[in-house]
Amino acid sequence: MRRWLLSTSLLLAASPAFADFNDGLKAYLAKDYPKALAEFQAAAQLGHPNAQFDLGAMYFNGEGMSKNLVEAYAWFSVAADNGFAGADNAKTQVLERLTQPQRQAALDLAHHRLAKAGHQALVQSLLPEIRITTDAPDAKPVARVDPIYPISAARKGLMGFNKVIFDINEAGGVENARVFEAVPQGLFEEATLKAIRQWRYAPPKDKDGKPSRIQGTTVSLDYELAGYGINDQSFEKLTQPLEQKANAGDPAAQFQLAGVLEWQNSIDGWRSAQTQGEEHYGATALLPYSRRLARPQGIPKVSSHYFKTLSWIFAFRLDKEGVPQDLRLVTGPGEEKKDAQQASWTTALTAQITKRHYRFKHPNDGQGLYVLKYQVFNNSDEEESTLPALAPKLSAKEMMVKAAQGGLALAQYQVGSDLLYGRSCVVDRRKGLDWLTYAAQQGQVEAQELLGMELVKGGETERDWAKAKVWLEKAAAQGSWLAKRELARVLATADAASLRDPDRALALAQEVIKDHEDPNSYGVLADAWQAKGDKKKARHYLKEALDEADDRGWDIGPYQARLKSL
After folding, report:
1. 513, 529 Cβ separation under 8 angstroms
2. What does the pLDDT profile of the chain (566 residues) look like in tens digits?
3. Beta-strand pair 324-331/309-318
């Protein structure tokens, strides 16, 4: 039997040093097998199928250790269970080489590995239950400023997107905004940050109705020029190299591809449709259709409170004459409500489309699946587009999870915070805290900061101020003012004497208040003075906190209660 090769033999691009799987590949190519083994094991435990396969290959080849076919079979089995192409064939060939006792040992070990790192085990322990939801359900924008399209980009017809992480403070303001992904790089970032720092949200509240913060809110700002549309060939040119690297298990490429897929979906995701029967993808462009669909009777032609936008998406293929065949409704209004009037509008549009006759640019064109989108807006405008269908791809969220499984700290932070706040997935705090821990262990400052704060305020089963202190210390050492403030709170108010340090709490609180004169910062400064036994100064800063809270429209009750108790 031939020597098994790793899932990818060459690094296709320089990758971040904190990506476990890529570190493993680098170590393997340098013949540093102990390090490669350790890095692959770390990613394999998170369910990275390439790392699982590569572990099997190393055990089969005896690279850095004695050859072990039992271990090889077990890891090939887990890789196969997580969808790695070729792993089924590998484990079958290994099994044929084993003696009967070895076979039973291999089957037993595979069962053990599957119980921890197989697909179903990961669904229970780590993988989010993906749902199509709003980006941040608790974040309610009240004022947004659109970025100014850079003149240099507009003149060249350049489009792209920026993905931004920021925090929403207790007053609804945006803090700590930073662009963590940009396509193309260096073009839109300045305009993005200038605009997003002016955004305002409804002041967040916790479950008890008290002022709170929202950490790690993410938004994607798309830069799209009217009339340009999406050039499929240009888009494929952008995505193909990323897809090749992502399929080879590169977490950095998976992270980038997740952003690109999200961008694509925000612009023309309506074109994604499943084929049926003899349909296939790869249809060519059609000549513009001059006669537009007639507005169905009964849809108001003036501004109405009845609807904001009505949207229909149809899929069909064309016969040789360009007549739509096998027309089906992909999505449309009234489907869930079973609205009879809206159903009649769908029927009217369907009748019009089936009578059409599309024209091709070349006689042999027209083969493949097409998608038509028809929209009616509240202001009486209408829009219609018919374009070749795009093959459905993995969702951006699924690709982000793959990057997290590969060990990319920023992806782990995103998946963790998404699980905490229910962004495009079902809320699962246990899984969210686990992912944040993986990212924090790699030094990801936002993860350390958020993990520490969650362990401070978490429920009874989550609250752990000793662990919180560890992570807040690490984030504070990296310059996080928020971590410094929360660390000061722990040092001043912790029940355990071993955690308290009033002098250091005061120093940290005074450092924070220089640049952040908000109610919470004044409150922590009061905590520090109270811990030092100076009630007079504690009352002074509680009054400052109360005044700031009053100016911002916050609930001043908690500050009044604290003043009375001193």
Report:
1. no
2. 345 555 543 333 333 334 468 888 889 989 999 999 999 999 999 999 999 999 999 999 999 889 999 999 999 999 999 999 889 999 999 999 999 999 999 999 999 999 999 999 999 999 999 875 444 446 778 888 899 999 998 888 888 888 888 888 877 888 778 887 788 889 999 999 999 988 988 888 876 777 777 877 888 888 877 655 556 666 677 778 888 888 888 998 998 888 888 777 777 778 888 888 878 888 888 887 878 899 998 887 765 555 667 889 999 999 888 899 999 999 888 655 567 888 899 999 999 999 999 988 776 666 889 999 999 887 678 889 998 988 777 778 889 999 999 999 989 998 998 898 887 888 899 999 999 999 999 999 989 998 998 898 876 567 899 999 999 999 999 999 889 999 999 999 998 999 999 999 999 999 999 988 888 899 999 999 999 999 999 999 999 999 988 887 777 888 899 999 88
3. antiparallel
Whether the CB-CB separation of 13 and 250 falls below 8 Å is answered with: yes
Give the N- to C-terminal CA distance of the chain in Å, as an integer: 79
What contacts 234, CB < 8 A, 6 or more positions away?
A: none
Alpha-carbon distance 479 to 11, whole Å?
A: 33
